[in-house]
C-alpha cells in the first residue's frame, strides 16, 4: 500500500511541478513498465500495461490467442486450458491474463525511471515550444546569462533564447546579469529542445515598442503603416489615424515627447522620425523627407520613381548624412527617390534650351514645359 501511495504522490508531484498534462505522465509510466517487462521477457510475449487509478499501480497483462493446437507457447493457449480461465472463450479469441508486475529487477525499475524522465523532458520541451510559438512577434524581457562567440544567451524564465550578434544594434554593450528587451523572431524545435531567436534590429521591434507606449495604437485608432530602420542610428515610422480628431504624430510623440523618448531610450538613443502617412504618394514622400522642405515633385508611376526638387540650402538636409535621410525615405515609401537642387534643375533646363536651334525651339519648349506628373508642394499644402 505504501508503494501505491508513493506512486500516486510521484505522479501528482510531476504534474504540479512540471506543469505537464497528467495523461502524458501516465502514458510515460505505462510505457516505462512495458519497456522494462519486454526487456525481462526478451520481447517473447504480447504484453500491455495500464495504470489503475483505484489501486494506484500499473497493471501488466499478457495476451494469448486461443487455438486448437499450440505452436507458440508464449503467444498461444489451447482451448481446454483457456476455458479453465474463461468458460466462454472460443478459438481465435484473445485472452488477457494479469501478470505480477512486482517482480521486476532493480535494472528494470531503473529503466522505467529513465523512460519517465525522458518522456517528462520531451513533454516539457513541447509545452515550452507551443507557449513561445504563440508569442512569436512579441517583445519579451530577459536577463543576459552568458556569451557564445558574440551571441547573447538570454534567460526568459522557463527557457533560454539566443540574441545573435547580427541582431544586436551597433555599439550596444551588455554584461552578464543585464536585463534586455528584444523581439521574438523565430522558434525552432531542435534535438536539444526549442530554440528561441531574438532581435533588437528588426523594424517590428520599433513598432511593438510604440504599441506598448501609445494606447491609441493598441486600441487601433492609430495605425502603423510602415517602419524602416538603420539600427542604432536612425529610423522612420509612418502612422495614420482612423479618427480625424486624433493626431497620429502627436499621439506617438506624447506629452512633452514622453512617449517617443521612452522608445528612444530603450533603443539606446536611436533617432526616430514620426511621419504622417498619406495615400497621395507625392505628399507622403514630402513628409518622409522631413525635416527638409520640398519645392517640387515629379512622379513616374510606371517606374515607381520620383524626382524631388529642393531649395539649395535644403539639399544636404534632404539627402542626410551619407544619404541616410533619402535612403530611409525611399524604403518607407517603397519608391525610388532622386533629389536635385533648384539650381541644378535650372542649369539643366538652360542647357537643354541652349542645345535647340531656332526652328525647333518653340515646339520643343512647348513640349517640355509641362511635365506629365509635376506637383508643386505649395498645392499639396493648400489641400
What report would you give on this structure?
The chain is an alpha+beta fold and 383 residues long. 40% of the residues lie in helices and 29% in strands. The protein has helices spanning 2-18, 22-40, 79-85, 106-133, 203-213, 215-218, 248-253, 258-266, 281-288, 315-319, 324-333, 342-354, 358-368, 377-382, and strands at 46-52, 57-67, 76-78, 94-99, 139-148, 151-155, 160-163, 179-190, 193-199, 222-230, 234-241, 271-276, 294-300, 305-310, 336-341, 374-376. Helix 2 (22-40) runs antiparallel to helix 4, helix 5 (203-213) packs antiparallel against helix 8 and helix 9 (281-288) runs antiparallel to helix 11 (324-333). The radius of gyration is 36 Å and the shape is elongated.
Summarize this entry quickly.
This protein has helices at residues 2-18, 22-40, 79-85, 106-133, 203-213, 215-218, 248-253, 258-266, 281-288, 315-319, 324-333, 342-354, 358-368, 377-382, and strands at residues 46-52, 57-67, 76-78, 94-99, 139-148, 151-155, 160-163, 179-190, 193-199, 222-230, 234-241, 271-276, 294-300, 305-310, 336-341, 374-376. The protein is an alpha+beta fold. The longest helix has 28 residues, at 106-133.
* Backbone shape: elongated
Helix content: 40-55%
Indicate the mean pLDDT: 84
Which series of helices and strands comes N to C? HHEEEHEHEEEEEHHEEHHEHEEHHEHHEH
Query: What is the C-alpha radius of gyration, as a whole number of Å?
Result: 36 Å
Number of helices: 14
Could you give the order of strands across the largest sheet? 5-6-7-9-8
Q: Helix/strand/pairing class, anyone?
A: alpha+beta
Enumerate the spans where pLDDT stays under 50 for 5 or more consecutive residues: 1-5, 359-375, 378-383
DSSP strand count? 16
What percentage of amino acids are in beta strands? 25-35%
Amino acid at each position: 500500500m505504501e508503494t501505491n501511495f508513493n506512486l500516486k504522490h510521484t505522479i501528482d508531484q510531476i504534474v504540479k511541478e512540471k506543469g505537464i498534462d497528467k495523461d502524458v505522465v501516465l502514458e510515460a509510466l505505462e510505457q516505462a513498465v512495458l519497456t522494462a517487462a519486454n526487456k525481462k521477457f526478451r520481447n517473447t510475449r504480447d504484453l500491455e500495461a495500464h495504470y489503475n487509478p483505484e489501486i494506484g499501480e500499473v497493471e501488466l497483462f499478457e495476451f494469448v490467442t486461443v487455438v486448437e493446437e499450440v505452436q507458440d507457447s508464449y503467444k498461444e493457449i489451447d482451448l481446454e486450458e483457456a476455458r479453465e480461465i474463461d468458460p466462454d472463450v472460443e478459438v481465435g479469441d484473445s485472452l488477457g491474463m494479469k501478470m505480477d508486475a512486482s517482480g521486476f529487477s532493480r535494472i528494470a525499475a531503473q529503466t522505467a525511471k529513465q523512460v519517465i524522465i525522458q518522456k517528462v523532458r520531451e513533454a516539457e520541451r513541447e509545452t515550452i515550444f507551443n507557449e513561445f510559438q504563440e508569442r512569436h512577434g512579441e517583445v519579451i524581457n530577459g536577463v543576459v546569462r552568458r556569451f557564445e562567440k558574440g551571441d547573447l544567451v538570454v534567460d526568459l524564465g522557463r527557457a533560454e533564447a539566443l540574441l545573435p550578434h547580427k541582431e544586436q544594434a551597433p555599439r550596444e554593450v551588455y554584461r552578464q546579469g543585464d536585463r534586455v528587451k528584444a523581439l521574438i523572431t523565430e522558434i525552432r524545435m531542435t534535438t536539444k529542445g526549442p530554440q528561441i531567436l531574438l532581435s533588437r534590429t528588426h523594424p517590428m521591434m520599433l513598432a511593438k515598442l510604440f504599441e506598448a507606449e501609445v494606447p491609441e495604437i493598441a486600441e487601433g485608432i492609430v495605425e502603423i503603416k510602415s517602419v524602416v530602420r538603420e539600427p542604432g542610428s536612425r529610423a522612420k515610422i509612418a502612422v495614420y489615424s482612423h479618427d480625424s480628431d486624433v493626431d497620429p504624430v502627436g499621439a506617438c510623440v506624447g506629452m512633452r515627447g514622453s512617449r517617443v523618448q521612452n522608445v528612444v531610450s530603450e533603443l539606446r538613443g536611436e533617432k526616430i522620425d514620426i511621419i504622417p502617412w498619406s495615400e497621395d504618394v507625392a505628399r507622403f514622400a514630402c513628409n518622409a523627407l522631413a525635416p527638409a522642405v520640398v519645392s517640387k515633385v515629379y512622379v513616374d508611376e510606371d517606374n515607381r520613381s520620383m524626382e524631388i526638387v529642393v531649395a539649395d540650402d535644403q539639399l544636404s538636409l534632404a539627402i542626410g548624412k551619407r544619404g541616410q535621410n533619402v535612403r530611409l525615405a525611399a524604403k518607407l515609401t517603397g519608391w525610388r527617390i532622386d533629389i536635385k537642387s533648384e539650381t541644378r534643375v535650372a542649369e539643366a533646363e538652360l542647357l537643354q534650351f541652349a542645345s535647340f536651334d531656332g526652328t525647333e525651339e518653340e515646339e520643343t519648349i512647348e513640349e517640355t514645359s509641362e511635365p506629365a506628373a509635376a506637383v508643386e508642394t505649395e498645392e499639396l499644402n493648400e489641400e
